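User: Predict the full complex structure for these chains.
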Amino acid sequence: MAKNETVTLMDIVRRTGLSKGTVDRVLHNRGEVSRKSYDKVMRAAEELGYKPNVYASLLASPRRIVIAVLLPYQAPDSFWALSASGIERARESVEGLGGTIVKVEYDQYSMDSFREACGRLLEMEPSGVVIAPLFKHETSLLAEELRAKEIPYVYIDSKPDDDGYLAYFGMPMYDSGYLCADQLTGGQDVGSALVIRIRRDKLRQSDPTVNRRAGFLDYLAEHVPACTVHSVFIDPNEPERIDGTLDGFFAAHPEVRDIAMFNSRIHLIVPWLEAHPRPGRRVVGFDNLAANIAALRRGTVSALIAQHPDEQVRLAIDALADILLLKRAPARRDNFMHMDILTRYNVEYY
Amino acid sequence: MAKNETVTLMDIVRRTGLSKGTVDRVLHNRGEVSRKSYDKVMRAAEELGYKPNVYASLLASPRRIVIAVLLPYQAPDSFWALSASGIERARESVEGLGGTIVKVEYDQYSMDSFREACGRLLEMEPSGVVIAPLFKHETSLLAEELRAKEIPYVYIDSKPDDDGYLAYFGMPMYDSGYLCADQLTGGQDVGSALVIRIRRDKLRQSDPTVNRRAGFLDYLAEHVPACTVHSVFIDPNEPERIDGTLDGFFAAHPEVRDIAMFNSRIHLIVPWLEAHPRPGRRVVGFDNLAANIAALRRGTVSALIAQHPDEQVRLAIDALADILLLKRAPARRDNFMHMDILTRYNVEYY
DNA sequence: TTTGATTCCGTGCACGTTCACGGAAATTTT
DNA sequence: AAAATTTCCGTGAACGTGCACGGAATCAAA
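Assistant: Here is the predicted structure of the four-chain assembly.
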């Protein structure tokens, strides 16, 4: 207490009269130690307030960790590309600690590709895994395997039913939809709104935006009950058909003005919007893709809600590094990132 | 390139035929090395891609750093109290690296107190300093002293005229005012708005919110030119007089509805606002004090603009630790934090 | 009592740096 | 050419921990 010096393992050695080796065995409880010595060391450690020097440990131990990150292929300026910077930042710190980070990518529209990625991941025997789970069933198989091998794993973006994960970093989807509706209407009494959705194949993919839509609709029901919500489906693989779809919709519903979209693809309808300007129109979307931000700057998009996929991976990797390297459990298991509202006036400093 | 192993200082030794000591002297360029050896080592380091092992360095070097943080006394739930968590987070990592963080507090309304704090700071001979500069002249004296002693320093919150600082972390004040006006009016044509300001004594304190006000007024001039802006002054030390002041103002200007405030004290007028509810009224303030957030949750305040004083100190301390411990210069010198828009619908996850 | 097995423990090297110290080599002075 | 400097360089002991190895002590079996 009184002494300001840092207390080392050798202090425990001196205090207990035992040896380095024994003290070390106790501290890592790997047995081969008598009950009596065990207690003596524990008491001494407690009393002296011993904190192991992490860097000395790292230096001494030959073990190097490998963290695998399983996520969809990061097409340029796509949602998943946003996470790249987070991975790089995490890489810096983890590599400084003698670890490695390996990306394992899959095609987010192909279950086979996901399955194949899982195989690649397992055979590289990582020390820890970050998972962006888009396929429910396949993910649970992977998780089972990891649990059997006692490899800790962390979910990002969304979280399946599963109880063996180390931590989860994601966005509160329902609340983000609620917020989206508030940004769209401002609680004002708008008569109607259009929601643009992505046509999905009937893959057994989980669609995380369903909760977002629920939040959106609940907000309207509570704050703007008279508002009618229309839906229109587009296909990102056929961008040339989007204009026609929108033309068709607005011919039938000229009174609709405000538009929301629950995924990162709001930029897909920007060309149409800019070809059909309308004063006072509010447009709200998600995620800070470069294309979205450009539209925000031009005023075509009123607000974007950003969820920091980069922060998510970074924190996920850090949590794994903490437990693997420093043996420190994450503070919270379920972590919700904050939702940032981006407008043309604050996007500059983002 | 080909070998996957980490390259150590000893690899350079082997490659150059020189000794550990010489290589070390070159790497830390502390002289006593011939030109020829110097070049040889540098070339080898370059070619091998040598990265020093930080932890081995830390282990070997006896030097422990002390980072002093000079900032106003952190009254409970005040703006400066927000930075506490950032200091604590930085403390964790810095103490892990064998450093210490010391807060040096002063009374933000007393220049004598600031001067006295500078004295205390200097005599503890810190290795680096974080400064929240509220008094222009005194700050420049301190900075001069630090430069003479070659102690690196970082500004947070605001930045005086000075060119010797290592880095600056703050908020773009002008733009925050612009954003504030946008959040208040939404670009809609409001007839008038009220700005509530803090009465200041004629100390030679710098008032960082002047730029914020400029941004605010410019937005209105550009987007809502017909809008009339009124000002009212209140004194935080006489909260009991606030109600009267506002009563007086609104008796004379009943048409005014929307209210903005450029500092963290929006909570001061919340009691009055809640005693005088008015439908559709927009109220915008700054900073996520607990009192402000409570009012935001209740809907009394429409939006808060948050500037992350905690992130500011944390990054500032990290920048110092980087340069002092790892000899790594900050990526950017002037760093503007992002401005977050807080509403009752996204404040939950903040 | 001797042997063998078991449980427990200490020794010593390694990890990649930093840095003080002492000394060789090169250069200048007498 | 010897002495005195100056410039440059190598050696070796830390820093705090991990871990392999070998050996002492204890106990059971012969």
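The radius of gyration of chain B is 26 Å.
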